[in-house]
Amino acid sequence: MALVLIVPGCGKKKPATVLVVPTPPPPPPPEPIPAPPEVKSSATQLPEVPAPEIPVPTRPPAPRTPPQRQAQQAGAHPTEPAAQPATPAPSVPQPRLTQLLSPQEQQSYHRAIEEAIRRTEASLASLAGKRLTKEQSINLERTRTFLRQARETRQADLVTARSLAQRAEVLAEDLVKSLR
Fold it and tell me: Are the C-beta atoms of 116 and 168 separated by less than 8 Å?
């Protein structure tokens, strides 16, 4: 109540002012475009050349599906799909992209792999007969897996084999450090 007395004029309503904006006149209709004039050509007509025939490659015929068995026609469930014979996967291995290495680089990789394998085996030998926690046992198996994969991959991909051997070495060193 005291607020109303202090601020005079709050209770009065002001008349609303309405702003009237005139609407623009509609645009004039577009003028029709005259048709283009006909052009008579005095040039001679070229003879039509038939399109060359392009041979369409043919697909080999689809393999025949085995006939459905009599049991299926005699009352077996018609909604069940017929068992398709398993097609064997092609035995041709897919080629792998590998890095091309010079003879010196190959020697360097072989040396690095051999040293990493040797150090890993020495670390694993120092772990023989020691009690390992569950986590340490898991890391020991990972180390052995990396070591095995490095040996298997060495003939085909030196870069990958070196990486695997180095991983095995790091894991083995960590295992030795965790037992000290």
Answer: yes
Do residues 123 and 139 make contact, with C-beta atoms less than 8 angstroms apart? no
What's this model's pTM, rounded to 2 decimal places? Answer: 0.47
CA distance 136 to 127: 11
d(CA 76, CA 73): 7
Angle formed at CA 171 by CA 166 and CA 175, multiple of 5 degrees: 145
What is the rounded CA–CA span in Å between residue 82 and residue 47? 59
Q: For residue 1, what pLDDT is reported?
A: 47
Helix (DSSP H) and strand (DSSP E) numbers for the chain: 5, 0
Q: Which carries the bigger pLDDT value, residue 51 or residue 148?
A: 148
- Helix (H) or strand (E) holding 158, with range, is helix 158-178
Choose among 109, 69, 98, 106: nearest CA to 85. Answer: 69
Domain positions in the chain are 103-178
Query: Where do runs of H (alpha helix) occur along 63-131?
Result: 70-73, 103-126
Q: Do 115 and 166 contact (CB within 8 A), yes or no?
A: no
